[in-house]
Amino acid sequence: MDLARESFIAASGPGGQNVNKVATAVQVRLDVFALRLQPQVFARLKAAAGSRMTAAGEIVLTARRFRTQEANRADARERLEALIRGAFEAPAPRAKSRLNRVGKEARIKAKKTRGAVKANRGKVEW
């Protein structure tokens, strides 16, 4: 079962006359629903893919960085693999920061000082 489909399209950029004759850019389409991912992994993949994911649940990647089909095909596959691998890595839970009494006092003092600077701005009365 082949989940990803590759098609070759005309590329822009370097290549001279070759660009006009040969379809060197690669467009890879992957059906995400066929992967049967867990909901949290799917959500991370959807967020990482952004606008590259269609409403039909396909991730569309276009690789046109290189001058040959083989290099662009390898580039597209690497990028797709990196995108999927990144979705499987759960983000580290955020540790709540703790501020001690001295830190709180220093923050309040800095706020008061900044407020005093702003309060002194404006029209000057002679």
Automatic annotation (TrEMBL):
It comes from the Bacteria. Signal peptide: none annotated. Keywords: Hydrolase. Its EC number is 3.1.1.29. Residues 106-126 are annotated as: Disordered. It is an enzyme of class 3 (hydrolase). GO terms for molecular function: peptidyl-tRNA hydrolase activity; ribosome binding; translation release factor activity. InterPro entries: Pep_chain_release_fac_I (IPR000352). Residues 10-26 form the Prokaryotic-type class I peptide chain release factors domain. GO terms for biological process: rescue of stalled ribosome. This is Peptidyl-tRNA hydrolase ArfB. It comes from Tsuneonella dongtanensis.
